[in-house]
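Notebook B, p. 112. Complex prediction, attempt 2.
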Amino acid sequence: MSVLIVGSTALDSIKTPKAENPRLLGGSASHASVAASFFSPTKLIGVVGEDFPKKYLALYQRHGIDTTGLQILPGKTFHWSGEYEENMNNRRTLLTELGVFETFSPELPKAHQGTPYVLLANIAPALQHHVLDQVKRPKFVVADTMDLWLNIAFNDLVSLIKRLDGFVLNDSEAHQLTKEDNVFAALKKIHKMGPKYVIIKKGSHGSILSGPKGFFICPAYPLHKVVDPTGAGDSFVGGLMGYLATAQGSIESNIRRAMIYGSVSASFCCEGFGLVRTTRTTRQEIDRRVRELEKMTAF
Amino acid sequence: MSVLIVGSTALDSIKTPKAENPRLLGGSASHASVAASFFSPTKLIGVVGEDFPKKYLALYQRHGIDTTGLQILPGKTFHWSGEYEENMNNRRTLLTELGVFETFSPELPKAHQGTPYVLLANIAPALQHHVLDQVKRPKFVVADTMDLWLNIAFNDLVSLIKRLDGFVLNDSEAHQLTKEDNVFAALKKIHKMGPKYVIIKKGSHGSILSGPKGFFICPAYPLHKVVDPTGAGDSFVGGLMGYLATAQGSIESNIRRAMIYGSVSASFCCEGFGLVRTTRTTRQEIDRRVRELEKMTAF
């Protein structure tokens, strides 16, 4: 089955202590869609400006991503610039130019409205709502978010959470949302807000799923070197939804393995700037890392 | 088989945002020995003053801990006092009174010198060396440490690491020791310093083993509430060594499960002040949490 992914489509200028890379393909929808594309047919919903490089459209196409829902509008593509500290965990935003994103209203092509798997990747909750309003009886809806929306669109986010099957956020966002320091206490509170499945991302410490079958403690794939973690969380949730959409059987029986696939997708993302490393991987290489994680967690 | 454990034996006065508990039984050797005692015969090497409460000697005895190697000297027991912040991760030391610890020289009773499993729990590296000098052909020697020794006894610690089968430290200590931000890069460097097995503790994020069979990503047991994390790392390594000492088969084939047992031991430690919760647990309760962790990591 196929996955519909809405989110940001951006140009990212990323600075690390080792290197500087201007105007890479970025944005939550780009990272999530490329990650998902290794598993399922993927439909991207987003917006770019007239300055959007053709090579990036070609990249989407090479991954078989359906870009019927990608609007190309007069104006500039959303441009984000950030800088990482030596430890590659702390980053600060240097610049945010919304460009065409400022007035973006995601419109679903008719053919997309029945997509069974819907990923509302990180984007304003009002836009996530608007996409959800246009899909018909989806099988599984998951949303990701970021601290910005907790700060400036709290009520929109809370009403969105009610509508989700699965909600993904990181540990500091979970703390901000629930005022709980303890991850497991936070998970309990988030379930009460609506979703059957809640996933808390912990970066290099992996992630935790809470669902009807209890907790799943999902490892991160060990990396000796992190080149650029931008988009790792988007790749995680993209890989997760891409895998789920193709797996046989129930969500419940597949979601743990889907998280492992998400984790591996994120590992490739971190190994290169922007999407450079992710686009070079293969399903075989992904499966190899999944088998390695199986070995690294067996006891 | 039995485990010999040397480390600090102390009175801990612990303050958290919720409560204050003076003069609890503490110290690395106390936590590690009680954790180990659920699995194997355990011999404690340490020192206390004449003020050491009889009820704590009784506690050791109730756990079948051999205290032949516990010196009771004129003077005061080592007293540590610390305060935790709201998130229960950051703590600051309020007071350290070394007391009889100041002149402590651990001497092994003859009967202890052939103990096959030796745990050099957190204590000055010079004292860890001194204990190691007295044991005859041990089967497996593991040491734990803390940031203090990296700061004030770096060379002693480095020469100790050479003599170990296994070395346990936390992630910030690994960074301090190797100057590597990345845990996996740090592990590689620490192996080059000597030990076949290196374990990096990451608190509530679990721990990582690096050994001849590659990495093992060990989860922490999920706790909804942490009452007092003091001694969790000592309990981890105590449970690990206690389990290893009784398990049939090679170290290599048992060490992963031993870490899981260590992880569960640490979880009980965190659920009460000092050793209050740990002393109340049972082998059955420990095994139950191990089975839960099996379920929470299967995919």
